[in-house]
Amino acid sequence: MKQTPRTRKINETAREAIASILLDEISDPRLDLVTITGVNVAPDLTTANVYVTAHGEQDRYAEVLAGLESAKGRIRSLLGKRVKLRLTPELRFFIDESVDHGMRISEALKDVPPTLAEPGTVEGDPGSDADVSDIDLNG
């Protein structure tokens, strides 16, 4: 879907409203520490894809999706009251795995051996800025 200022505003407003609803109105313990990372509302306003992430392991995602599915009707009803649109979109929930993917990349980069690091970034490396102060330029 092409992003226009109107669709971006609708998506962001829906994201904020759903996050607020989950925080204030829904008391399902399966939905603790759930973050709404994005919402994409269809141009005809009939459906909204809601992307979520949760603190925990992969098995927690099935629990979160089950909790969201059971609360879907209430969330949609409250969304309709908070966001004034011609139609209240049907909500479809998806796990946003980009956060997990980013964390895996970050962890992998922590384990880069010094021999693969960029020259000048490791202490003791001849190209490192750390050794520049030890050089006597006067002869």
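(the above was protein one; protein two follows)
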Amino acid sequence: MRGEELVSNIVSLIPKKRIFLLEGELGAGKTFLVKKICKALKIKEPILSPTFILWQKYEFKIDDKKLFLNHLDLYRVRASDILKIGLRNELFNKNNIFLIEWGEKLKRFLKKNSLKFVVIKIIRSHSKRSYLLKNYEL
């Protein structure tokens, strides 16, 4: 799947699907993809990588409904640690949409709590990227 097609597919799933786990090697383009999704959602704020601050939150609307896009980067932290700082409660809030880099660290928690999620696997080969989408209906 190409990047533009992927972004369009993801945006069409929101807010029905709320949790997107981004997987891929370091430098694969996870933050780049998040920026493209945010642009498609018409988020006006500059989209910054949350590598060092862990969590960025942006407000946006779909059909006049106010939602919040939560962009997390779990590269440097354990999932158990991020759950301790409030993520656990936020994941159950239906107004929150999540794009989580290194999201594979949360799979077990999400499955255990019957939270549906979509995995976006980014595969980088030289200067090209390809994407795989997998929907987890529990």
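Reviewer note on protein two: Strands lie at 19-23, 55-62, 65-73, 96-101, 117-125, 128-136.
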